[in-house]
Structures are given as C-alpha cells and as structure tokens.
Amino acid sequence: MTPLDYDFLRRCLKQRSGLVLTADKQYLVESRLLPVARKAGHATLGDLVEALKRGDEALTAAVVEAMATNESFFFRDKIPFEHFRAIVMPALIAARRNARTIRIWCAAASTGQEPYSLAMCLKDMTHDIAGWRIEMFASDLCGDVLEKARQGLYSQFEVQRGLPIQLLIKHFTQVGELWQIAPELRAMVKFRQLNLLADFCQLGIFDLIFCRNVLIYFDQETKIDVLDRLSRAIATDGFLVLGAAETVVGLTDSFKVVGDKHGLYAPNLRSPKPWAPRPAKRPAPRLVAVNGGR
Question: Which of 10, 76, 103, 140 is catalytic?
C-alpha cells in the first residue's frame, strides 16, 4: 500500500467513523483490510482504495467495520456497574416515582456484554422496579457485532471474562460449545445500528447513557461534538458513564463529575449551554420493556 493510499484510508475512516489513525498504524490497516479486499475480489489494497474512491458504499462499510475495535466483556471495569447499582438506579427510582419509566442507552455496545450486564443488574432489582417500564437501547456502528449481540451467544472464553460463575449458571444456557443468555434478558435490550457521528436526536431523551471506550479513538474536535450532542440527549437529572481512560475535562462544560466517582457524570445545570426540554411524550421509537408493562 502506498503512502497516498494509506492517507486516503485514514481520511475515509475518520470521516465515516471518527477513528483517528497515526502514521505508524499502516501495518494494522494492512492486516485488517487485506481479507476485506480479497473477499471483495480485489488483489491488492491499492485496488480496494480505487474501489472506495469510486464510491463503493458497501465496501466502505466493510472497511469501517473491519477497522472497528470490538473489545467488550461482561461487567467490564466493575466500578461503573457498582455505580449503577448504588448511585444511579436509586437516584432515578426516587426521581421517577410518578412516571415510573427509565430510559437507558448503551452507545458503542459492541457484542452486547455491556447492556446484558446492566440487564442482569436490573433483574436483581426486580422488587424495587416492579411495575416500572425500563427501556434499554443499545447501539453500535458495526452490524456484524450487533447480530451477535442479538443472538446472545458467547464462547467459553467470553463468559469467563468478568462474568461471575453464579450469574453464568443463573442466566445462561449451554448450546453446544457456546453459552446463550436467557430469552428474558435478550428481550430487555433493543439493538440498533447507529453511527455516533450521525444525528441521534430522534432517539429522544435518556435518563442514563453509557458511552464507554469509544471517545478514546476520536480526535478532540470529534470528542467535543459527540459530548455536546450527548448532553442534548440526556435528562437534566440523568447520568453519563464514560470509560476509565475518558473524561469531559477540557472538552465540555455540559457535564460535571458526580462527587468523587470517576467516570460518572451528571449534567452541569450551570452550563450556559441551552438544554433540550424533556418532552411530555417522548419521540423515541417504542422499545422493549422489562418487569411488566409492554
């Protein structure tokens, strides 16, 4: 692959997915895209680049998906899920006692371990949210990983990463050499392909947004844009959860840290940025409910 071809791919990937590649990552691009090129009938990466320049949208999508980092595992980093149980849900339950509805969005959900981890947490809260409508929406840029997430099928290695054995026994069934999460947990999550660089205001307002381990791949300008748009998609008394290596500091005044809880943020109501009002009837598409009330 020539330097010009690599520069074109870098621009294409940044424009389509926000992924920023440094000059020393050419080897990574070559290793991931050669199989894509051959599958599409192109002998070289140079031929693939020429096809991309001609506007082959299907090939462009395949290139973007091949370069995505779909690393995920159950209860990843543990602390965000401790915050979910001990801080976020108690606060939302207290604040939503009249509406009895909570909306959750897992952005960049990859193969589904994050939303399913939240679903398992919610199952343990059945007494507290009996009769509530809990809407959980999960999205990712890549269609292939979302299909895996919908099926809820995981290898032995995948269920051993972060998933306590008691939860494996309680919520999974062995299917051959794989493990499948229970149908009632799969029904708790609505998956949808979505690019965070695109407009997502049609999804409505969420009470909690998990957007972990995706901003680290963006440049500062893109991080600012995504965070500012997330601030318009979250209730004024809602919560945002970022990854361990991510922060809003120096990027936006729309969020503030919740106490000393690293990675947990709340809207900064003193921010001069105008807030989108919470609609009386939320415009988001109807999502799957849990714990009664479809």
Answer: 140
Q: Does domain 3-67 have CATH number 1.10.155?
A: yes
Torsion of CA 239, 191, 120, 69, to 10 degrees: -80
- For residue range 90-121, list pLDDT tens digits in order: 999 999 999 999 999 999 999 999 999 999 99
The one catalytic residue among 16, 32, 100, 150: 32
Domain ranges of the chain: 3-67, 79-267
What is 79-267's CATH number?
A: 3.40.50.150
pLDDT at 288 exceeding the cut of 70: no
- Write the pLDDT tens digit of every residue in 232-284: 999 999 999 999 999 999 999 999 999 889 899 999 987 554 444 444 333 44
Q: Residue 294 catalytic?
A: no
Q: For this structure, is 32 an active site residue? A: yes
pLDDT in tens, 109-153: 999 999 999 999 999 999 999 999 999 999 999 888 999 999 999
**This prediction's pTM:** 0.84
Average pLDDT value for residue range 38-62: 91
pLDDT of residue 271: 57
C-alpha radius of gyration, the chain, whole number: 20
